[in-house]
Amino acid sequence: MSDQPIRILIVDDHAVVRKGIQALLATEPSLEVIGEAEDGLQAVARFEELKPDVLLLDLLMPRMSGIEVIRDLKGKFPAVKILVLTSFAADEQVFPAIKAGALGYLLKDTQPEELVTAIKQVYLGESSLSPSIARKVLQEVFQPGEKPLSPDPLTNREVEVLQVLAKGKSNREIGGILSITEATVRTHVSNILAKLHLASRTEAALYAIKEGMAKLDGKD
After folding, report:
1. Nearest Cα to 85, choosing from 146, 45, 43, 139?
2. What's the CATH number where 180 sits?
3. In this structure, is the dihedral angle defined by the CA atoms of residues 196, 143, 108 and 79, taken in order, positive or negative?
4. Residue that finishes a domain, picked among 96, 124, 140
5. Residues 6 or more apart from 123 whose CB is under 8 A from it?
6. Do residue 161 and residue 77 come from a single domain?
7. Please, is 190 exposed, middle or buried when counting C-beta atoms within 10 Å of its C-beta (0-12, 13-18, 19+)?
8. Structurally, how many domains does the chain consist of?
9. Which residues, listed in sequence order, are joined to residue 32 by a DSSP beta bridge?
10. Paired sense of beta strands 128-129 and 6-11, if any
11. Same structural domain for residues 56 and 162?
């Protein structure tokens, strides 16, 4: 990770929540809150102005919902890194947010250290889901009638890459663990997604959990 702190924009319609999160993150030297927004329209404007590394976003807000914010910003800035932090675990909130492009989805009862870890994972382009949310997504992604897997099975190396990917590691970290180049890791990840008919690293990680290659708590 860069020596520069991760720059964060906090979006929540409750001032006390914004201030609480800011106070928490201020204790972590690797993180820096550079701005706040209290509704969806302001969130988009502030993002365009500040260009934060990570957008920490509530979903239920005035004027423009969090899901609309995600869609708007992903359309303008495809590489935007968004971590949802909300009180709501209802299916009608979870799935649209993830499908719209949020890399992470945490509930507000998340422990402080878990929030800090999730911000760092999302900054690296990795997914971060609360265990209860991951279970919901597993059920949604792998329902009866899913596309059959490719007849071409995963190679031993692709299985190794998938197992490490499921632990939330970046391509660089995977390469270091498996002693292969970052470019080789990218190729393996692309092959894994194609063979399993999956759209994202998040789905690949969830597939690994479903198949017993990894656990929700990230332990071996």
Report:
1. 43
2. 1.10.10.10
3. positive
4. 140
5. 1, 6, 53, 54, 81
6. no
7. exposed
8. 2
9. 7
10. unpaired
11. no
Q: Last residue of some domain: 140, 164, 183?
A: 140
**Coil, strand or helix at 160:** helix
Percent over 90 (pLDDT), the chain: 38
User: Residues near 171 by Cβ (< 8 Å), separated by ≥ 6?
Assistant: 182, 185, 186, 189
| Domain carrying residue 174 | 145-210
Query: Rounded to an integer, what distance in angstroms lies between the CA atom of residue 122 and that of residue 88?
Result: 20
pLDDT in tens, 95-141: 778 778 888 888 888 888 889 999 998 998 887 777 667 666 655 55
- Residues 36, 119, single domain; the answer is yes
Regarding beta strands 82-86 and 128-129, do their DSSP bridges make them parallel or antiparallel, or are they unpaired? unpaired
Concatenated DSSP letters for 11-79?
A: E-S-HHHHHHHHHHHTT-TTEEEEEEESSHHHHHHHHHHH--SEEEE-SS-SSS-HHHHHHHHHHH-TT
What pLDDT score was predicted for residue 211? Answer: 77
pLDDT in tens, 3-36: 789 999 999 999 999 999 999 999 999 999 999 9
- Three-state secondary structure call for residue 107: strand
The pLDDT score that the predictor gives to residue 145 is: 45
Q: What is the mean pLDDT of the chain?
A: 83
Same domain, 109 and 193: no
Q: Is residue 216 part of a domain?
A: no
